[in-house]
Design brief:
By secondary structure, the protein is α+β, with helices and mostly antiparallel strands. It folds into two domains: 84 residues, Arc Repressor Mutant, subunit A; 69 residues, no CATH class. The chain contains six helices and five strands, in the order βααβααβββαα. Helix 3 packs across helix 4. The termini are far apart. Pfam families: HTH_20. One of its GO terms (molecular function) is DNA-binding transcription factor activity. This is HTH arsR-type domain-containing protein. It comes from Dactylosporangium siamense.
């Protein structure tokens, strides 16, 4: 069964995946296919595709899901192990010391996103439990807010107050622990004034 996410934390996995031909092979293996089928789709030799598939299997990026006999030869059928592959920021590691940054800086936001990515990947691997196990409670919300330049400071203050109110209300020592991360940044997909 294909997972939603495979979090790559080993350099060998990243090196194996990050080759243009292998990525194309991996895309073809979103559905179960043999090396012969993938080779035909990519207009490559079966031997070349098999070489890439073998490397992907070695590092858990692809799995053999079946085997069939074709003209007297056993042929493997392979499939990607996940729908998405995330590279851990720890593959490179932190270069230099973590700097103390203002929570309104983009550097702070980058650090926060690395932490969220790592936490979500860990939760996802933990959530891969038997069928019927309860879903882990989580919430993702995304939206767009438009703020005039002269009201940006007011908006940021209101957002900070709303979050502080939540932390105060639910910040007790009892109950299940949840992390809350809020990212607010300029939307560059639209033309922003100022």
């Amino acid at each position: 069964m294909i997972q939603d996410l495979l979090y790559l934390e080993r350099v060998e996995q990243a090196e194996t995946l990050l080759k243009p031909h292998r990525i194309e092979v991996l895309r073809q293996l979103a559905e179960p296919r043999s090396c012969t089928e993938v080779a035909a789709r990519l207009d490559q030799t079966q031997q070349r595709v098999y070489y890439h598939v073998k490397r992907l299997v070695e590092h858990g990026i692809v799995t053999q899901v079946a085997e069939r006999r074709v003209r007297g030869i056993n042929e493997g059928v392979y499939q990607a192990t996940a729908r998405a592959y995330w590279l851990s920021p720890r593959l490179v590691g932190r270069i230099g010391q973590r700097q103390h940054r203002d929570e309104a800086s983009l550097g702070y936001l980058l650090d926060l996103m690395e932490e969220v990515q790592s936490d979500v990947a860990a939760l996802h691997s933990r959530a891969a439990q038997p069928v019927g196990a309860p879903e882990l409670p989580s919430l993702g919300v995304s939206g767009e807010i438009r703020v005039r330049p002269d009201r940006r400071a007011e908006f940021m203050a209101d957002l900070k107050t709303a979050l502080q109110d939540l932390f105060t209300k639910y910040g007790g020592a009892e109950g299940d622990g949840f992390k809350l991360a809020v990212a607010c940044y300029p939307d560059r997909t639209h033309d922003n004034a100022g």
